[in-house]
Amino acid sequence: MRMFPSxxxxxxxxxxxxxxxxxxxxxxxxxxxxIDDGWAAVQQAHADLDAKRAQLAALPEDGEGEGEGExxxxxxxxxxxxxxxxxxxxxxxxxINGSGMVEGEPLNEIQQxxxxxxxxxxxxxxxxxxxxxxxxxxxxxxxxxxxxxDPDNEALTTALAHAESMRYMTKxxxxxxxxxxxxxxxxxxxxxxxxxxxxxxxxxxxxxxxWFYPKEDGGVAGVxxxxxxxxxxxxxxxxxxxxxxxx
Length: 247
Known about the structure:
The protein is 49% helix and 11% strand. By secondary structure, it is of the alpha+beta class. Strand 1 and strand 2 form a beta hairpin. Helix 2 runs antiparallel to helix 3 and helix 4 runs parallel beside helix 6.
């Protein structure tokens, strides 16, 4: 199971923005050089992280490990990227906390850039929760937390609105799924299904797989697949699925 880079609590960063006793950090002499050096290190670490992401994007989805049971090149790189992402996230938050923010004072150019970079990273983490797990609740939490620190970020606002619109299946969106579609086509048409909402009845000899999408009224919409030519394809769509699944 793919691990996710942790997103440090936004409260860690906000501790120097809230009017708490002793919160003000006044840079000492020579601190400007230290901040510049720290920011340069953050930028270099981010460039290295982006290079690793580009390397992963260039790898094919399939592939084989060096031996039986060994991870594929993609799985190995994903594991490395997870570790690197978490380390960078910690480095960025530490930099923001130590950048000399003063409560009530405007942020300087470097502080603004660091916060905007954190927002971009938060968006990537939230997108992973959506694309891999259909975990819109967690993604929405991440977006809302990031907006507390970066309230004027349009990319965050847009991403939050999209996640909220996809959180529950709507009749209009469900209508985009049609009989004969493959799993990939259904995902592209109506969104990712939560892994816990996939019921595979093939081991029971029924030869079908069901995907359940939660609706706002507490019910679920069902997409039913059966194998055709070795590929699972939709044979039935039920907006009002009789039996509920996990949501």
